[in-house]
Amino acid sequence: MASAFFFDAEPVCEVSSLLLPALDACALCAKPLGRDDDIFMYRGDTPFCSEECRDEQMQLDAIRARQAARSAAGRRQQQQQQQYSSRTESRHQESRKVSVAT
Ligand SMILES: [Zn+2]
């Protein structure tokens, strides 16, 4: 009984969230993306809620590429930062550099 009711309630949402989890929210600010909202795709499979977010992600990618090139030269420094989550660490650095660049 319970499962029949549940399946009747939102069968489509169940399937689509399993197949396309990345389309549920903006990849940058995590704002939920509804079906009627405009979705700005980047690199084919990364959704954003607005041109601003997508633009920022493109800047972040450019910075990340630069950092990757730099970190190849300075690997000793990076090893000291390994106790931090690399995601959190790089996000901090990136947002700082973005605000300077803008
Ligand atoms: Zn966004």
TrEMBL record:
Pfam families assigned: zf-FLZ
For this UniProt record, give its keywords in alphabetical order, as a comma-separated list. Metal-binding
Where are the stretches annotated Disordered?
Answer: 64-102
- Chain ranges of zinc fingers (FLZ-type): 21-65
| Basic and acidic residues composition bias: residue spans | 88-102
Which family does the similarity line name? Belongs to the FLZ family.
Question: What protein am I looking at?
Answer: FLZ-type domain-containing protein
Its taxonomic path starts at: Eukaryota, Viridiplantae, Streptophyta, Embryophyta, Tracheophyta
